[in-house]
From TrEMBL:
Residues 229-340 form the Asparaginase/glutaminase C-terminal domain. This is L-asparaginase. It comes from Paraburkholderia caffeinitolerans. Pfam families: Asparaginase, Asparaginase_C. Coiled coil: none annotated.
Length: 343
C-alpha cells in the first residue's frame, strides 16, 4: 500500500465530514493516447491525487483523506486484494477521524467487490464504490462526476446504515442488487429486478427505499479466512460434464451453476452435479438470465439432488456468498439454503 496523501483542507472546513478515498485502479484511473479513444486505454495508471484534482468542489463537500490501495485493472481482482481492502476499510471506519469511505474501482468486477464488502465490512458508516466507463483521458470522461457524486453521497449522512452502496451515473445502488449491463455505455450499472435505491445530483441525495437483507455489522462473515475454491459452470445446449469432473478432481469445494431460465440445468450437467453434491461438494443453482430469481424447487428437485438455490443473486455474487459461507464452516445443504435465503 502506498503512502497516504491528504489534499489541503480549505480554511473553515473543519466541520465537514471526513471521507477517505481509497483508489484501486480501473478505467476511472485509465489513460489512452488521445482523447477520442475510449477503448484502447491502460487501466489504473493515474494516481489518486490526480483523480481528486480533476474534481472541482470536493473540498466543499468533505475533508478528503486519500490512499492508493492498488493500481489494477479490475478484471484481475484477487482474493488477496479483497482481503487487504476490507481490512483497510474496517481500520479506517473503526476510528473517530473518518466518517465514510469512497472506493474507486474498475467496472468489470465492481459488483463482486461491492457485495463482498457488503457482507464483510463491520461498520454502519457509509461505504461507497464508484467507477467509470471512460478513461480519465477521454473527451467526455464520466469518472469525475461519478466521484463527485460518490463523495456527496458519503458526506450526506443519509448512506449510514445502508450497507455498501454503488454511486454511478447519478443513481445509488445496493451492492447486493447492482450489476453491469453494458460493455460501453456510461449508464452501465443497473439493479435489474427491483431498481436503484435512490439518486444523487448536484449535491442532493434522495433515497426511495432501503435494503432489507442483513449486511455489514449484521452479517456473520469474516474476511480473514482461508478462501475455499468455488467455481462457476454454465448450462447450455449440448453441454458436457467435462468441466464439473475436472473441477472436482482439482479439489473445488463448491460449484455455482449458471442455469438457463429459472436455474434449469441440462440433464447431462445436472447428473454430474448431483453426483458431486452427494460427495459433499456444495452446488448452488443460479441463472444466466439478467434478472429474476431462482426458485427453490423443494423436495422433488433441489432437496433430492442436493442443490441450493441462489434466489435473486447472479452467479458471480452467489459465488461470493458461497465462498464466505463455506469459509465460515457452513457445509450442510439446508444450512447453506438458509444462508442464501437470508443474505
Amino acid at each position: 500500500m502506498n503512502t497516504p496523501t491528504s489534499p489541503q483542507i480549505a480554511p473553515g472546513a473543519q466541520a465537514l465530514p471526513r471521507v477517505a478515498v481509497l483508489a484501486t485502479g480501473g478505467t476511472i484511473a485509465g489513460s489512452a493516447p488521445d482523447a477520442a479513444n475510449t477503448a484502447g486505454y491502460q487501466a489504473g495508471v493515474i494516481g489518486v491525487a490526480q483523480l481528486l484534482a480533476a474534481v472541482p468542489g470536493l473540498d466543499a463537500l468533505a475533508q478528503i483523506h486519500a490512499e492508493q490501495v492498488a493500481s489494477v485493472d479490475s478484471k484481475d481482482m484477487s482474493f488477496a486484494l479483497w482481503s487487504a481492502l476490507v481490512q483497510r476499510v474496517n481500520e479506517l471506519l473503526a476510528g473517530d477521524d473518518i466518517d465514510a469511505v469512497v472506493i474507486t474501482h474498475g467496472t468489470d468486477t465492481l459488483e463482486e467487490t461491492a457485495y463482498f464488502l457488503h457482507l464483510t465490512v463491520k461498520s454502519r458508516k457509509p461505504v461507497i464504490l464508484t467507477a467509470a466507463m471512460r478513461p480519465a483521458s477521454a473527451l467526455s470522461a464520466d469518472g469525475p462526476l461519478n466521484l463527485l457524486n460518490a463523495v456527496a453521497l458519503a458526506a450526506s449522512g443519509q448512506a449510514a446504515g445502508q450497507g455498501v452502496l454503488v454511486a454511478f451515473n447519478n443513481r445509488i445502488h445496493c451492492a447486493r442488487d447492482v450489476t453491469k449491463i453494458s460493455t460501453y455505455a456510461v449508464d452501465a450499472f443497473q439493479s435489474p429486478e427491483i431498481g436503484a435505491l435512490g439518486w444523487v445530483q448536484d449535491g442532493r441525495v434522495e433515497f426511495q427505499r432501503r435494503a432489507l437483507r442483513p449486511h455489514t455489522v449484521d452479517a456473520s462473515f469474516n474476511a480473514d479466512v482461508q478462501w475455499p475454491q468455488v467455481e462457476i459452470v454454465t448450462s447450455y445446449a449440448g453441454v458436457s460434464r467435462i468441466a464439473v469432473d475436472a473441477l472436482v478432481s482439482a479439489g473445488v469445494r463448491g460449484i455455482v451453476v449458471a442455469g438457463t431460465g429459472n436455474g434449469s440445468i441440462h440433464i447431462t450437467l445436472q447428473q454430474a452435479l448431483a453426483e458431486v453434491a452427494a460427495r459433499g461438494v456444495a452446488v448452488v443453482r443460479a441463472s444466466r438470465v439478467g434478472s429474476g430469481h431462482v426458485m427453490h424447487n423443494g423436495a422433488a428437485k433441489d432437496d433430492a439432488l442436493g442443490f441450493v438455490s441462489a434466489g435473486t443473486l447472479n452467479p458471480y455474487k452467489a459465488r461470493v456468498l458461497l465462498m464466505l459461507a463455506l469459509a465460515a464452516g457452513t457445509n450442510e445443504k439446508a444450512a447453506l439454503q438458509r444462508v442464501f435465503d437470508t443474505y
